[in-house]
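Thread: quick sanity check before group meeting

JM: Hey all, I'm pulling together slides for Thursday and realized we never actually wrote out the predicted structure for the chain we discussed last week. Dropping the sequence here so it's in one place. If anyone has concerns about the input, flag it before I start.
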Amino acid sequence: MNQSIWLVSRWLAATAGLIIAATLSAGAVAAPSSPEAPVREAYAITIRQLAGAAGKPVAAPWQKPHRDRLMSRALATLFARDELYQDEAGEMGNLGADPFLSGQDGEVKSLKVSVTAPPAGGKALVTATFRSFKQPASVRFRMVEEGGAWKIDDIVNRVDGKDYPVREALAQPYECGSFMKKPCKR
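JM (edit): ok, ran it. Output follows.
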């Protein structure tokens, strides 16, 4: 009988240890990353894209496979709709520039990414500053906590003292497209 009690107590101790370990590791996985992490990753992708990545094309941060990982569901959906329009119409979508460069082309030198409005209520503001063709550039990112991780919810470019939120541009209607219930004549 002593051996039975010993076996049960060993089993209980081992089970409790596994439960504690699983709880701790689940907590570590579920902990949200810092709000600037997706922005840093997006710029790492942009820099690889600009460098040509050894002759292989690199998808932009707003394209598959990156957008669903880096962006909120709402913003990813808007970018996907813009991409679908471009495919169906053969025309430029609602964005005329690279939102991460705040221009049609550029470079990213001396990149600094910082949280400019600390997280509160599942939202934060991150700013990326860099030099592009020897000129200072700054892009703001509205971040949202979604699914236990920080995601880019909007990208705000400032041109000639005026803010241009990407979300607002992408939400504009299109002339045609399967999602507009009016096929494009391509």
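AS: nice. Confidence is low (pLDDT under 50) at residues 1-31. Residues 143 and 153 are 5 Å apart (CA to CA).
JM: adding both to the slides.
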